[in-house]
Amino acid sequence: MSTFHLSRRAVLAGTAATAAVAALPVLQGHAQAAVPAAGAAYRWRNAVQGGTGFITGVLFHPTARGLAYARTDIGGAYRWDDRTGRWSPLTDHLGWDDWNLLGVEAMAVDPAHPNRVYLALGTYAQSWAGNGAVLRSEDRGATWKRTDLTVKLGANEDGRGCGERLLVDPRDSDTLWLGTRHDGLLKSTDRGATWQAASFPATPSATGQGITFLVAAGRTVYAGWGDSDGTAGKPNLYRTSDGTTWEAVPGQPTGAAAKVPIRAAYDRHTCELYVTYANAPGPNGQSDGSVHKLRTSSGKWTEVTPVKPGGTTSDGGTDAFGYGGVAVDARRPGTLVVSTNNRWAEIDTVFRSTNGGRTWTSLKDTAVFDVSETPYLKWGGDKPKFGWWIQALALDPYDSEHVVYGTGATLYGTRDLRNWAPQIRGLEEASIRQLVSPPTGEAHLISGSGDIGVMYHERLTASPSRGMASNPVFGTSTGLSLAAAKPSYVVRAGWGDNGNGAWSNDGGKTWAPFQAQPSMAKSAPGPIATNADGSVLLWSFGTSNPGFRSADNGATWSEVASFPKGAAPVADPVDPKRFYAFDTTTGTLFASTDGGETFTARATGLSSGDTEFQLVAAPGRSGDLWLSLKWNGLYRSTDGGAAFTKVASCWASYTLGFGKAAEGASYPAVYMVGSTESITAVYRSDDEAKSWVRVNDDQHQWGWIGAAITGDPRVYGRVYIATNGRGVQYGEPA
């Protein structure tokens, strides 16, 4: 399968959802309206991985025991239920057109009204992204009302671990504040229904951080400001006591170690505000930082930094890092936790103090980890690490020893300050790139993702017991292919720690790296395909490099000059001599009949310039090709790509796959994420795309889902969907 889709930055997270859907529409032909379809209801769940993405914020409700919320950079928001020990996704209803709202910039709760929760949504603040929005709920996120903003937010940009930038005013539950990156301070006086610009003394820049957090200290609101350079006369901490007039906080710390205020927490018992700082917003790029506290009753500042960055590491390097999360104990005065961030050499930690920051204990030093539920956290080794990118940090207001912290891959929690385990059930935030459902073997699914490589799912209800595919370990997976006539043989490509390609002879359980690889594989690993019997590999390396071929399981490679640059190879599922590739720059289908040694042009004049497309070969049939085009719909060839015919039943097709045929049908079920009329949804066809049944519903849309889709060749009706932030979703007829 050939896939090109939206890129996703380095670290991500999440999954988890289940529910039955209501009766769904069937659509037939381009111009036919939706009509009810009986028996089309689906139940949707996550294929469990257990996190895998960046948790950017965790917020315990201060007055409702066992209630908490979590936010992610690209995978939406979640609510914690202490009784079940699970997170429930709150934003899966956001659809294709609202993909930019799956990133959660900030969240807020109302201490006086436990059922109220607010989310500020917007993944990117770039010109090509849509504006942000605020969701408000009176029932803990079961239902939402939405207000679209006129400004952009940046939940997946630098500074995404700062916060919270959204706050219910401590004097008035109807008043909310929202700090933006480039548009100053916004204020709502009707519980988030409408928003207006509020006066603020600092001027935002086009590229800065703007307001990094808003926090209540009694009846006063404090705001962190990320666009100062940290020098005297350029403050980065402001406050208002009347909700109208803001002033710079006197005596605040200056210098590189206090350049960007990251987070703040207020101890109501001691009237002290704790602020973490770094020399950059993070999560990357921090090399200095500090922790300070302000006694709000007297205005006295005190530095309480646990360990100052800049020391010497065990290997003689520099211990460079910033500070990230901070949380105070609501039950014990002067007790708090803070986290380091971007501390790669000595590994990040959480420090705890019981005396207002005079002395600290590193919880990492005595930590015992149990990652048996999510073995991938061993990262291909024999034990887990404390984590990285720790900016989300929270302390349960009803349990002084219940601490949680987010990382670039999970959420760890402890109930005794010593024993830690992922507190991640139900929260899945992976960006999935490839899906393979083998026709035989133990696993019904193999997935490839951004950041967490490839996983072999022997069960869909538990995190893969083998963790990430190792030997080598990949960060981002770029290619995954199974030999159709020899499904025990699988190959993968990606950004690896010891090579960029690997093969498996046991269906993906264990792997071995290719003995050799083309020189460009290290800097530009791309899609890879194996032919039907596993005797030939084709590997692509971007638009400026030729394709390469191996006929000895990756021991040697030879250039294929006639392979179209930038295309993704697709193997014929029956004939091992045949490969195909679509060149979107010219709108030409290329084919090989000599095992990938040479390619020649076949169909020409097809849609060109479509950056999101897939070429898919129907299983069990030679030369039966489907070309899925975002802007021009769906095309089919039954003669190996010599000619294509447009499929009339849809006008846009984003991704296509196949599964087990319906009872009595001779052709595999076809699954598509696409558009018929104005609806972009997930569809199944049992009659070779003559008609479609919608199989998802309005509560299960998951934003952008154009990377990959496949049915299960052994279970009719089961379909797997790759999401860009909500992991692998799989549906089955209810």
Automatic annotation (TrEMBL):
InterPro entries: TAT_signal, WD40/YVTN_repeat-like_dom_sf, Xyloglucanase_GH74. This is Carbohydrate-binding protein. The keyword Metal-binding does not apply. Residues 1-33 form the signal peptide. It comes from the Bacteria. SUPFAM superfamilies: Oligoxyloglucan reducing end-specific cellobiohydrolase (SSF110296). Keywords: Carbohydrate metabolism, Glycosidase, Hydrolase, Polysaccharide degradation, Signal. PANTHER family: OLIGOXYLOGLUCAN-REDUCING END-SPECIFIC XYLOGLUCANASE-RELATED (PTHR43739:SF2), XYLOGLUCANASE (EUROFUNG) (PTHR43739). Residues 285-318 are annotated as: Disordered. Belongs to the glycosyl hydrolase 74 family.
